[in-house]
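in:
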């Protein structure tokens, strides 16, 4: 069984629709016992980091999620909440990935202005882990974000937007994508299917 964590933060419907498209059966829940027993857990998220962490804490999920032993995939804010901290709202996060989440720069190295939030299709490179099996390098995925995790030992894919950032993270049974696989067409469907096959 696949469990999608419900903590009142946005994109549950689009994640549910993406799972249906690949024929996956799932439940949306915040029940700790159900999450512990699930074969796979997805932690989606849209919104602001400190508010999202507060929602996890209200349900005791901030303590539960780091103890899970099955594959866990955080998406967008879900991945950011698995890092050490976020500049967004000065949030202390779950500390699964050894990196911090910083605001994207508004200026490139050459002085060009960058739009923040970073919205739209961009490429991912330096792909590692089975999450990206069958994907070509520089595949396009869909982003909507103003903050991103710094590259670190757990970085398994990168994107450059002014600076390089962690497009995806992986450590043990925990994975995260800054981009939205549920909105990334065929590439995103492949990533979700690869996650379910881990």
């Amino acid at each position: 069984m696949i469990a999608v964590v419900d903590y009142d933060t946005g994109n549950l419907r689009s994640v549910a629709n993406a799972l249906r498209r690949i024929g996956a059966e799932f439940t949306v829940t915040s029940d700790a016992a159900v999450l512990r027993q699930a074969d796979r857990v997805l932690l989606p998220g849209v919104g602001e980091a400190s508010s999202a962490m507060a929602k996890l804490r209200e349900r005791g999920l901030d303590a539960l999620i780091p103890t899970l032993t099955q594959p866990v995939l955080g998406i967008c804010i879900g991945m950011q909440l698995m890092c050490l901290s976020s500049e967004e709202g000065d949030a202390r996060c779950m500390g699964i990935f050894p990196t911090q989440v910083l605001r994207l720069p508004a200026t490139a190295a050459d002085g060009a202005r960058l739009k923040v939030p970073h919205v739209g299709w961009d490429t991912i490179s330096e792909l590692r882990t089975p999450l990206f099996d069958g994907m070509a390098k520089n595949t396009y995925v869909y982003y909507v974000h103003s903050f991103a995790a710094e590259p670190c030992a757990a970085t398994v894919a990168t994107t450059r937007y002014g600076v390089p950032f962690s497009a995806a993270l992986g450590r043990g049974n925990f994975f995260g994508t800054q981009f939205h696989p549920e909105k990334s067409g065929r590439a995103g469907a492949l990533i979700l299917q690869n996650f379910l096959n881990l």
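note: Residues 61 and 183 are 26 Å apart (CA to CA).
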